[in-house]
Amino acid sequence: MSHLFNRIHNKFIEWVSAPLLTFLVRKDMAVLAGRILTIHIERLQRGARANGNEPINVFFLPKLGHTEDVFASIGGDKRFSIFGINQILIKAVYWAFLPIEYDDNNYRSDLPEIERQKRALRAIWLRILPPVIKKYRPDIILTGNYSYAAEQELWTAFEHYGVPVLALHKECLKSAGLESFYEDIYRHRKVPFRGTKICVYNEVEKRIQVAAGVAPPDKIVITGVPRLDRVHRLRAQAADGRLGRTTRQKQVLFFSFKTKTGLPIIGRKGRVRYEYLAPKLDGLNWGSFVGECHWAVVELARRYPELKVVIKAKNDSQAFETLFEVFGKDFVLPVNLEIATGGDPLKLIAGSDVVCGFNSTALFESLAMKKPVVVPRFSEGANEKLAPYVLDLENAVEYAFSSDELIDKLRDIALRTRNNMDDTTLDEATQRILDRWMGNPHGHAGERVKKVIIDLVEDNRRQAARRACVIPPRVA
Questions:
Q1: 54: which DSSP letter?
Q2: From start to end of 201-281, where are the E strands?
Q3: Which of 139, 284, 388, 404 gives a 20 to 30 Å CA spacing to 335?
């Protein structure tokens, strides 16, 4: 019932509240807009007083990945109350002022009219926020990326009212080939961070942001991936081999990927999905490699009916397009092959005996779950020209250098993998890879983020108390 209620609620916001909010801010009715926003703020966790201190009121904008990071860091800790603000409402205010083309990858502008509109957007937020702040008294605001376009002027307004903004920057998985590409995007297409501090997953992302002038080094903290903490916990729970397993069959899990996975792209809003890049970049793709890997997994299922094979795809239009392009509309699945597009991928990983994928965060989750991982390295996947765009997992995984070898390795590893683990300790190679890319080899990233939040809030409260105690000068 709660799932159905959430869907109805979200549709109401999309079809009624968001258009109303856009109308109100266009009519300069900021006070009423603030009241509309206030009634849609949802309490997701209720905190409690501890040691005489009021709970820390944390605001965030729910988004896939970011929500998991937030709750992995402070969920269940009663020192924190957590409030969610639907992103559609924030975008509704944004779209009242700026064209949709000024998106996450194109916010920087030198056009006087656009800059005037940004100032007007900031001014309306300064007038919208007082009822929100008065009712909920937010101590800190969390966002999932330092550069979300619709939030830039909002963060400036919150900072104006003395509420710190912390970015838990979640887009941090960048190969060597993408470093200079994203440094250029950050420097020329985005604006420097408007908030207080940024948490990133790894040294690579911090290096890019510092080089691009996003923020000075002391404002960027490497904390690791908080949501990976759960995987470390699940590894211990999966020791008996039952977690996530729905069949006695040995299970092979393959994470679907697209022709542009991990390659330079600039996503856009509006008329085009992706911006045209220079020919040397625009022409890069994994080509036939995508189809060869998918069909190898299908052949695995056909040859070995004793195995259960699962293809996991993201639940979005681009993922469905990839599957359709590879298999066609009349493809008939082998009875032991399943295509999964929803559900919890961690449970799928926990229930599998071997995992296969390419340039995917899921591979790191699988390694953290102590699952054998096979990475295909043939066709375009072995092309030296594309090598800088391949995430290097070193010797923490096994590699297959042909489609036939991929089939054989997946079968052999699945059949020899034991269903239980006597020792859940990760080997040094796996820990090194998880530390390099995820910043989380042991499951303590959430605690590091929590400390950043507490330190920022306590410092801000101390400063507010000092300001309140300042005695005004005597008037002569």
A1: P
A2: 220-222, 250-255
A3: 404
